[in-house]
Amino acid sequence: MTFPKVVEHVKVPPIKCQGIKTKLVNFIFQNIKWDEQGKWIEPFLGSGVVLFNANPQRALVSDTNKHIIKMYQDIQSGVLTPQSVRDFLEVEGKKLEESNGEYYYEVRDRFNENGSSFDFIFLNRSCFNGMMRFNKTGGFNVPFCRKPERFRTALITKIVNQIIWVSKVMKGKDWTFVCQDWRETLKEANEIDFVYMDPPYIGRHTNYYNQWDEKEAKDLAEAAGQLPCGYALSMWYENQYRKNDHLDVWNGVIRTTSHFYHVGASERNRNAMEEALIIKEGYESDVLPQVSEQLQLI
Ligand SMILES: C[S@@+](CC[C@H](N)C(=O)[O-])C[C@H]1O[C@@H](n2cnc3c(N)ncnc32)[C@H](O)[C@@H]1O
């Protein structure tokens, strides 16, 4: 398969993170041109939703968040399997329920000491608002979602199915997961590769693994300008208050799509947000697709 393409059923991986691009997967895939001869390079992997739906034969993906990378390495090496995750969540979910939620904090302390991928999934799927946030010293610090019966059979099955899906997609593929800064990853790019970049938003969600400022953004734009291959960068374009002024440092073709975010439960708080994809000239698709979807902020 080559790009542009459309994925009929976009699937989600077993972890969630801020800025997850589930709703933008097809917008990205429809707008880029790449023949898949080289490797898919994704230096800001996050949840992995873009990579897994892109499903390339060769990939080099990275993130500075060591927990994300370790979890995918553990799935790749068979440490974490659908069955071991099911067994773990059944046992730990029961303890959570019996402790009326208090057990969450025990798992959180344990995770901050040992960094187990099983605990990472447990915390990611039972923390408040599904957030991934770390304190100054790198400790996971999100409170509990306050639903002691969180790990019901339906949720465990859903998570296990997500593990089955990512394991299947990875199988037989030449994929490398590395924990490193984007600069190191971009050094590996060759002419036939394609780089998809989704850095943190400047000034938003700032925490241990999401330190991103004007200087970083400028350095990334400069480094992208030196890349020997095609690239695309995700960025917000404008909202009801203002246009993103960090777009100026980028050269390339801009494609945009509109989303509506519901902030809170009220229908009245419906905010339009324009998302952009900046594509290196010559690597944009020929046809302008029409993609417009609703985003629900939870
Ligand atoms: C907006 S998120 C990516 C979301 C992802 N595209 C998805 O759909 O789930 C940005 C990611 O960049 C990572 N990150 C932050 N600073 C980084 C750096 N200097 N080098 C590499 N990754 C970094 C964060 O840990 C975070 O996972």
Detailed description of the structure:
The protein is an alpha/beta fold and 298 residues long. The protein contains nine helices and eight strands. An eight-stranded mixed sheet has the order 3-2-1-4-5-7-6-8. The C terminus is likely disordered. It binds S-adenosylmethionine. S-adenosylmethionine binds next to helix 2.
The coarse overall form would be globular
Count of DSSP H/I helices: 9
Describe the main β-sheet briefly: 8 strands, mixed
Text of the CATH class of the largest domain: Alpha Beta
Spatial gap, N to C terminus: 34 Å
Rg value: 19 Å
Topology, number of strands: 8
Q: Would you identify the CATH architecture of the largest domain?
A: 3-Layer(aba) Sandwich
Q: How many discrete domains? A: 2
Query: Percent range for helical residues?
Result: 25-40%
Structural class: alpha/beta
What small molecules are bound in this structure?
Answer: S-adenosylmethionine
Strand residue content: 15-25%
Task: Looking at this protein, list some descriptive labels.
alpha/beta, Adenine-specific Methyltransferase, domain 2, disordered C terminus, 9 helices, 33% helix, binds S-adenosylmethionine, 298 residues, globular, Rossmann fold
What is the topological layout?
Layout: H1 25-31, E1 40-42, H2 49-54, E2 58-63, H3 66-77, H4 82-98, H5 103-114, H6 117-124, H7 153-170, E3 174-179, H8 182-186, E4 194-197, H9 214-225, E5 230-239, E6 253-262, E7 270-279, E8 293-296
Helix pairs in contact: 3-6, 4-7, 5-6
S-adenosylmethionine (SAM) is lined by residues 17, 19-21, 43-44, 46-47, 49-50, 63-65, 181-182, 198-200, 209-210, 212.
